[in-house]
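Researcher: For the record, we're logging two predictions in this thread. I'll number them. Prediction 1 follows.
Model: Prediction 1, sequence and structure:
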Amino acid sequence: MFDFFKRWKLVGRGMDCGKRRRQVETNEFLEGLECGWIMRGILLAAFVLGIAALIFTGVQEEPAKKFLLCLLIFVTAVAQLWINHPQTMHSNARLGVLLGVLLGQLAMIKVILSQAAAGNIDLQLAPLLIPYAFAPLTLSVLLGKNHGIYAAVFASLWGSLLVGRIDPVFLVISLITGFIAVFVTLQVRRRSRLVRAGVYVGLATWILAATFGQIGPVVWELPSQTNWQMIGWQSFAAIATGIGTAVFVSGILPMLEHMFKITTDISWLEMTDLNHPLLKRLSLEAPGTYHHSLAVANLSEAAAETVGANPTICRVGSYFHDIGKLVKPQYFTENIPHGENPHDDLTPTMSALIIIAHVKEGIDLALKHKLNHEIVEVIRQHHGTSTVSYFLQRALQQQEDARLGGKIMNMRADDIPDVSEESFRYPGPRPQTKEAALVSLADSIESASRSLERPTPQRIDDLVRDLVRDRIESGQLDDAPLTIAELWRAAESFRFTLVNMLHARIAYPRRDQRDTPQGRRPEEKSAA
């Protein structure tokens, strides 16, 4: 508050513009909720209490024994989560959505069975109305295929205990339909794929139910005695439940994404729309930067596919990584008109200050437009802690010239200003994810490729290898989860993409050459 009044006084005296950049702020309380052990313990305890409530309500045979079995399965589930999915175990948001979705499926099973026991649902239809694929489908799209398989296994085990007895038929149907739901949603980029997954799940449920005698029976010797109406309702229930589950999952996904700060591939694909206000501004106010960003997107996306990173995150991050240049677009090389360079009138330190500021300005614009947190991190990290080498070398050269001139004029060494390398260094941090590292590499490689006079495949290969080697040796990739083998696979992808982007074209003759007698077609010469 006191800082606000001080700044207000400075604004009144004309010594402050009153504007402040938005910054990524850390909140200790929110971080405690996200990563703290207390909140994690509360989530795990709430899940156990939820299972206890489902088991001990209603009529159950030996509920204490079933609860003990569920508790042992829960210990196994937590151990599996700790070993195979440590990222989820250490993120309370991801853990919360995982346990919440699992408990939601178990609650739906309990409700359907309770209604069937009360006579509100036909007992012949009840097993076919259970949404076996709800948890696997939801978690596969939200957290990935491994979490979907995890949900299919443990939801089946817990669900088989809720049925009233350990039912092997329920267990098999739940496992198989869950695995099919995960398999069909390995790469979901459109919501229509979820409906298709629901169709497959419904058909699988129908086939398995018919195999295990839950549909029918059909009296083949006396077809007239077969209850075809009930078989029709059972078939409809099996298929409609699968499709309805998928439609329901499609509807709640945006809400789950917003609540738990998780972004699915569907949402990432929606963010690739180039009609975003910032991208439209970039295309009009900084067209050079806009085309540079498109090229970086192509490079990073292709490289991501070779190293197992998320290609869509790389593409979206590349689109927005240089939006900070919108503040002063005329000071960046790709937007400078030919023959005009505003840096000629500035000192190297001031030029570097303007160049480095585009990262902070980009974060400010990203937060203002409420861009995804991962996009903000790509903007922060895409230059790491590297230096603006061109202006650093220019400053060192000016310092050396000043020293030589000082010797001639008998100036003292203390009168020559020092050059601090930190003044020419980006604030960082260094890339922390595969996607940020690939965008960072693609950004530097695409920018450097513009300086190649003759972009032959060999020159492009040398350029890519030199830049990747320099990033490795300078430690800029030390925090990124990329192996050396993955880096060189990415380098090969960069080389291949650049060779296709910068290939030579045929030099077509100009119009004035075509109009000369030598440029005429044979029939034109004969007519003349």
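Researcher: Logged. Prediction 2.
Model: Prediction 2, sequence and structure:
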Amino acid sequence: MSAVKPNLEGAFSGPSIESTPGIGALTLSGFLVEVTKKFGNREAIVFDDSLRNGETVRWSYSDLAAHSRMIARALLAKGAKRGDSVAIIMGNRPEAVAAIFASAMVGAVAVPMSTFAPAPELAHMLRKSAAPIVLTQRKLLDRQFAVDIDSIREDLPSLREVAVLGDESWNTFLAGADAVTDSDVDAIAALITPDDPALVIFSSGTTSEPKGILHGHRSPSLQFWMQSQLFARHPETRTFSALPIFWTAGLNTAVGSTLASGGCWVAQEVFDPGEALRLISRERVTEPYTLAHQTAALAEHPDWSTTDLSSVECAYGKGAFARHTSVTPDPNWVMPVGYGLSETCAFATSYRSSDTREQVRIGSGRVLPGVHMRVVDPDTGRVLGVDDEGELVIAGATLMHGYLGRPAEQTFDADGYFHTGDAGHVDADGIVHYSGRRTEMIKTGGANVSPAELEVALRACAPVKLSRILGIADKRLDQIVVACIVCKEGFSATEEEIKAFLKERVASYKVPKHVLFFDEADVPMTAGGTKVRDEGLVEKILERLGRNGGEQ
């Protein structure tokens, strides 16, 4: 949280944390102790390990706690101190989760870093976090992180220790744990508070260097407990996810909230649709937690129709899993819809899985426990009221401490709020409506058009696999709206069909001036493959429309 206690005048606030049932320990070390006591011998993580020739590794909660303690003792033996950063450059694997909890146990700050990042970007993150210790793995696909680190090490004056899982250096690192006792770890853990720094998440921006977002223990711990309830997870939940745990969706929504419920995370280090289908079937997964493009890849795989997915219960609406012939979805479960960002460590608002399908179609749910939200005039800072459109600003329990290397006064306003840069409003029922990035709002003919609104609408258009809405400069209208569309395999659409679909759902001035169709391989993406690189796509649009872009 910002150093300033937030002014709650004019705020839309969630329930207090104290009044919310099901919230446990609010330090990461306390969280692990609590879930281990509850679920000790239950299966916590299942993983087919590429470093062990595909051997299936199964860790119970007690195993996770024991491995975390061993790494914690090894960190202390290497001189890790409270407040030190521990860089974790690993794929989705049990040791990565243990390293995060281990760092927390000794009062250090866990810094999971993107395995997609090239060496220069890793150097930026390592310098920004000033990490003296790096925990990594020998190989992930064609990446050898130790080689990358060696190539940039002379630019990393803080770095003194690199332990590489799968190489002898890892065994040497763990051997140091013998010099430290569990009592030493417990003594440090007992002094840690929810406000102590615990976690850095690096943003995955598309145009600038990643920003280091520092969170205290309260942020991820509270997200673990809350999201477990939002998704209605329980000890029989088996969640499949290949979302990287260096992002909040992977760490909080896939892993932490599954552990909070006593369930099991079925991990995949690198998403592969064929292997994912085999894992989901073999491990009797009840909830596949996948992004839209991953779900589409599963449904398009040759093995999709013949794979036994009968264990899947959490399948939403008319989605691919719900349509699978072997799946009988739970009719009372709805995919939670919410709004949040890395700076709030994931959800700040959300619906619950027990809400109706009709409800979740409206906005992004209500403000969550411990969170305070205002809507302000972006030009004057004036606090707005119900149904007033403005900028969403946030304070409260899961808000970051700040950005690494940036003063608090440049991050939070005088009342302790973080300005998200997102436009929206809160209606009379307390539902938060996200309209899109203020900086992305398209100004056309004097009106504002939200790309997010059109992209959400196009999710219901049967032929559309991917859509991206952009504004292109225009001498007459300021900007024109352009829709870039990738169609699903076996589907096609025309420009007029897309426009007609949108005309039934949005105001006429919001309908794109142009609809351009692309092959998926031609859409420029970030290194992680999850975000469109808008600047690259604009270049392609200009090529299609002529170098001057819009209408003349």
